[in-house]
What we know:
Layout: E1 2-6, E2 9-12, H1 16-19, E3 22-23, E4 29-30, E5 34-36, H2 52-60, E6 67-74, H3 94-105, E7 110-116, E8 133-134, E9 149-150, H4 153-172, E10 177-182, H5 187-192, H6 207-210, H7 212-228, E11 234-239, H8 251-262, E12 268-271, H9 290-298, E13 304-307, H10 313-320, E14 326-329, H11 331-335, H12 339-344, H13 360-363, H14 367-380, H15 398-407, H16 411-419, H17 436-446
Parallel strand pairs: 5-6, 5-14, 6-7, 7-10, 8-9, 10-11, 11-12, 12-13, 13-14
Antiparallel strand pairs: 1-2, 3-4
The structure holds flavin mononucleotide (FMN).
Amino acid sequence: xxxxxxxxxxxNSKYAPLLESFAFKNGVQLKNRMVMAPMTNWSSNPDGxxxxxxxxxxxxxxxxxxxxxxxxxxxxxxxxxxxxxxxxDRDELIPSLKRLAAGIKEQGAKAILQIFHxxxxxxxxxxxxxxxxxxxxxxxxxxxxxxPRELSEQEVESIVRDFGEATRRAIEAGYDGVEIHGxxxxxxxxxxxxxxxxxxxxxxxxxxxxxxFPLAVVDEVKRVAAEHAxxxxxxxxxxxxxxxxxxGITMADTLVLIDELxxxxxxxxxxxxxxxxxxxKRGVDDSRSRIEIIQERVGDQVPVIGVGSxxxxxxxxKAFQTxxxxxxxxxxxxxxxxxxxxxxxxxxxxxITEINKENQQQLVIPDPLWxxxxxxxxxxxxxxxKKSSSLTWMNSFTVYIRHYKYFHQNELxxxxxxxxxxxxxxxxxxxxxxxxxxxxxxxxxxx
Length: 447
Ligand SMILES: Cc1cc2nc3c(=O)[nH]c(=O)nc-3n(C[C@H](O)[C@H](O)[C@H](O)COP(=O)(O)O)c2cc1C
């Protein structure tokens, strides 16, 4: 059955749950349940300001979804995690932050700035003096990873304040909220993780003490929001439920984290997953998906955003059955910026799920992001297909392998990457956008 929306639009009533409005506890209304997931696009200027191409890319994707979460922005100079990442670490960047917020909001979505520190995962060449820092001097697993310097207590406190300062800038720049990036192995997660946090002061030790930094960041961000914004400013928190390393974060640890976060009057929790339906590896004796376990634990204390390979409206409908009220789309919106509009207009069968290699201009994708996608095709067309053995993730070039995983549509190859991580060592220059050729050579050489 199709329902008239007004004018000639007709929505298939089956998909109405995707398009229902949603109200956060602070009263802010979203026009529907679909969210744009945070995605780094490598397209900002070297000085940390956003580019026109980047603003246009967001604007093109901001008229369908109810909420857009930006790519991560660094709150401290030594937290910059990516080439072409935009900054939120100093007041002179407020006009740049403002341009992005306006570009999103003018199209009708609420705009959330994702605030971040990369910790031990930052490429040394991107930060002052190559001074890579973390909770402890434990590098990411793999050969050639920089050994981070353990932050002093004073420095930890200073980074907590930096998250607050970035929040103030977000408020001044007109964002509707911030998302604290506590996921994907970056600094906040590094403090929570028993792998990267071996401290014995008040910031580490027991599980409770490893929570100190994430919760201090939440408190500071909330304090600043209360001081500088009205009650309608949104504060969300993103986390990854498990880590592969031993020791590492388990589902049991995550349940403790979310119990604590639920007490903090956050507007939402966002579970970072590549597969919405993935199941726990350790820590709970439960065969249900991670998201179901998390949603059950959180209950109606705080809304949860789910994400991960939700390609079609039917995938989204099924995901809503878990009780999660909001669903984020990442790659799906790169590939089809009109995903939500097509559902709203009853044209859901026209949703595109595989990127058209001829359509960069039409899709309004900045060159660096387009190149990242192109590398993925190159890699997926290479001998990687034929061999799936033996590999572990290596240094900062992991990012290219992630692109590969993100954009390849072939389940077999994606699965093989997920289950048998690939061991590739690249020369430093292959990390840069113009290093595509070297990267390709290296891949063929090593696999
Ligand atoms: C190109 C790209 C960049 C990403 N950058 C970020 C980021 O800056 N912050 C973040 O929390 N997650 C990031 N992610 C993860 C996505 O938010 C999302 O969790 C993931 O893509 C799975 O959702 P999808 O299957 O809908 O793409 C990125 C993903 C992609 C594909």
